[in-house]
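Bug: token stream looks shifted between consecutive jobs. Job 1:
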Amino acid sequence: MTIGIGQQRFFSAAVGVPPFSTVRRRPWARRRFSTRWAVIPLFLLDAVCIVFSMAAAYLLRFQLLEYYASLSEVFYVHLAWIAIPMWLLIFAFYRLYHPDYLFGGMREYVNVVNACTTGLVGLILYSFMSRRFGYDISRGWLAMVWFLSVASVSLTRFGYWSTTCGGRACSFGGRWWWVPMRRDGR
């Protein structure tokens, strides 16, 4: 049976069945799967940045600068094993992996600073509650971890955003962003 409205004709397989689907489509379903490809590498890049910031802070504080207190490498390795999943969970709570907020401009970088600060407070609380090793965290190491993690995560996210868009307008999180092209047209 053919139903016509104006010049358009709609075909229905059975009589009495509406030509349009009455099933409600979820508007977020298509968008979620289209930006999921950007979340997984970003999750791994953030983990690498956290490891880099802790290792670099350790080398800067204890190898290059003088440190007179007792030092346990096992203590800082244990802190790193605790900190990496904790910081990634904190990043997720700050919606740094949510498709609607992904590559959200300045708000994303404010969330990076807030998440890194919360992760640092979590490290301090963990070292205060767990006294198995009997060592205190170096304040210089904490300051370096915070600065390096904010810098490395922010720069990595900006680099990832600019390479994913490739100098064109792209949509992430329902917003369109324009990355200016270079002079050579790339």
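Job 2, same session, no restart:
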Amino acid sequence: MKISRNAPATPRPLEGKKVLVAGCSLGLDMQPFSQAGAFTCGLDNNQYSGVPNFVQADATCLPFGNGSFDIVFSQRLVDQLIPADTVQFLQEAYRVLKPGGAMIITHLLPEQERNYLIDQGRKLGFELFESYPLAFSLKKL
């Protein structure tokens, strides 16, 4: 029996995918996507040095072309936005997502506000893909 000394290849399920991490802060949320093979771009309205592929911009006015990303991820960004800005962020995320792309949102919102966001997403053309108490994902049809 021959034993291989080479470790098995790490699965890279997001190989070739483009992920926008909105509200990336120091870029920690970008690492799991990069490790899974994705090209990640971090966006925040504050400047952070040392974050790879970082763009300083407002999440309500994304400086990317239509259909630029496969995934838009935000961790607790919507908790910090007023409702009108949250809807604008959803609109912008929908615009920059490719058809079939996903938006993943984690939050600490009360159920009523969470349901409002999901309803606004549906009005834009998103489909609720997965839902948990503190996170949900929307799929662009």
